[in-house]
Design brief:
The complex is a heterodimer of chains A (about 150) and B (about 400). By secondary structure, chain A is an alpha+beta fold. Chain A has a single domain, classed as Sufe protein. Chain: A. In chain A, strands 3-2-1-4 form a 4-stranded antiparallel β-sheet, with helices on one face. In chain A, α3 packs antiparallel against α4. Chain A is globular. Chain B is of the alpha/beta class and about 400 residues long. Chain B folds into 2 domains: about 130 residues, Aspartate Aminotransferase, domain 1, CATH 3.90.1150; about 260 residues, Aspartate Aminotransferase, domain 2 (3-Layer(aba) Sandwich). Chain B contains 15 helices and 17 strands. In chain B, strands 4-10-9-8-7-5-6 form a 7-stranded mixed β-sheet, sandwiched between helices. In chain B, α2 packs antiparallel against α10 and α11 runs parallel beside α14. In chain B, about 50% of the residues are buried. Classes of the chains: A alpha+beta (about 150), B alpha/beta (about 400). At the A-B interface, α1 of A face α12 and α15 of B.
Amino acid sequence: MPISLDANMMRAIIMDHYQNPQHKKTPKSGYLSIHSKSENCIDDINVYLKVNKGIVVDALWDGIACTISTASTDILCELVIKKKEADAKKIIREYFKMIKEEKFDEDLLGEAIAFINTAKQAARIKCATIGAHALEDLLDHKHEKK
Amino acid sequence: MFDVKKIRKDFPMLKQTMQHHPLAFFDNASTTFKPQCVIDAINLYYTKETSNSHRGDYDLCYHVDQEIDATRQLVAKFIHADPTEIVFTSGASMSINLVAFGYAAKYLKKNDEILLTEAEHASNVLPWYKVAQMTGAKVKFIPLNKEGRLTLENVKKVTNKKTKIIAIAQVTNVLGYLVPIKEITKFAHHHGIIVVCDGAQSVPHRYTDVKDLDVDFLSFSGHKMCGPTGIGVLYGKFALLDKTDPLMTGGGMNSRFDMCGAVEYLAPPMKFEAGTLNIAGIYGLKAAVTYLMKLGMKNIEKYESTLRQYLLTQLKKMPDIIIYNEHAESGIITINKTKVFAQDEATYLNSQGIAARSGQHCAKILNKFLNTPATIRLSLYFYNTKEECDRLIKALKKGDYLDAYFA
C-alpha cells in the first residue's frame, strides 16, 4: 500500500463512519438536495448541501446505504464542509481519480483514502461513488431546491 | 446414481476462478451455467447450419425447420404438453407479458380483479399493474401466511365473483416456497378463474406436468435451466392461446393479408412468433432440455433437496445467521448475517470466489414482509457440491467482512 495508512486504520475509519455517521441528518430547509439511487443494489440516498457566498457551509445526507456507501458519503461530506465550491469540486475529482486507480493528490483526501482498494472489488465502485456523484452534481448545481 | 463430479466436467464455467479462488456459484436463481453440449449446439447453428426458418427451398432451411419442430416437441414432452401449446419467447418476462397484454388486456373489464402475491418477481407484477391501468381492472394481493407461504386458504379469502386471473409463481424467487398450484388451480377453475403460473424458478429444478397441475399458462426461461439467454417458453392451453392476441405482428405469423387491412393470422403457436426466431437459442434450448432429461428431473430435485438440507444444517448452527425460509422446498436459502449489511457480506463472499446475490432480488414489495431492506440469497443447482457449501460456511463464519477491501 503506497499510502501512509495501514489496512487496520482504513478499516477503523470505514467502520467508524458506518456505525456513527456524523453527517447523516435530514435538514429542514435552506439546502440544495439531490436524490441518488443505484440501479442494481439498494443504495438509495439523498444528499444535501448548503452553500453561502461560494463556500460550502454544510453537507448532509440520509437514506438506506451499505457500509461502503455510508462511510464514503459521510467522509466526503466532512471533506467538503468549509471549503470553497471550487476546492470542494477538486476534492471530489481527486477522489474519482483514486477510485479509478489514477494518480491523485493524497493530501486532499484525508480519511477518504480508506477507499483506495475499491477497484479490487469492482462491484462496489458504485457504492463508493454514489455520494461523490451526488456531491459533484450539487456543486455543479444540477439539483432540486429543498 | 447422480455423479456430481462427473456432471461438473460438462460445465466450462466450473473450471473458472474468481478473485484467485475456484468459482463457487450460488446464484442459480438468477441464471445457470451451460454444459458444453449446449455451447456446441449454439456453435453448430452458427458454423454449419445457419439459415432462416420457414423461408427457403434449400436443404439448410429444411433442416432448421426440422430442428425448431423437434425442439418444440421436446419441450412439450418435458412439461407434458402438446407441441401446439409451446410458444417460443425471449424468456419468462416476455411470456408473462404476452399473457398480460395478449389475453388479459383483451378480456378484462372494469373492476375485474387480478390476484398476485407480495412475493412475486417484478416480471409478474408490473405487467398486471399496466393491464389494470389499461382495463380498469384491479390488482389485489393474496396475503402470505406468517412464514411467507401462499396457501389455498388465503387464496379463498380474497377470491370473489370479480376475480378473473390468479398470477403466481410456482416457486418464488426470494422465499423459494413451493406453492400448492394444483389445489389452487382446481379451486380457481371451479370459479371460472384463469391461473397464470410463473415457472421460472420451478421448471428448471423439478419434474413438471402441466396436465397434472392443470395451469392455464406457464412461463419459463431457457437460461435458468442450462440453456442460452434470450430464449424462453410460454405454455398455454390451446383454446386459450387461440383466444390470445399476438404481442408482435409481422413475418412468419400471418397466412395472408391484403391492402385493405384484412389479415389472417396463423394458428398458435406460430401466431406469436413474428420475425426471425432466436434460432441459435432454440438449438441451445434443445440441447439443454435433452441434457436435463438425461439427468432426470426427479434426480435433480432429490439431489438439490439433499444439498439444501446439508447447507441448512450448518447455517442453523451459526447464531449470527438469520434464515428467512428454513422450510422452503426449493434450492433457495435466503439469509442475513446479523449486524452486517447484505451487500457487504456478499462482497466478502466474492473475495473468496463465492458468487451470491444480495439485495431485493426483483421482489421489492417483499421487504415489508421480511422486515429488512436486503437479504443474501443462496440458490443451488445440481452442479453445486457439499465442498462448495463448506467453503461458503467457512466464509460466512469469518468475522470481518471488510477483509474483502483490504486483502
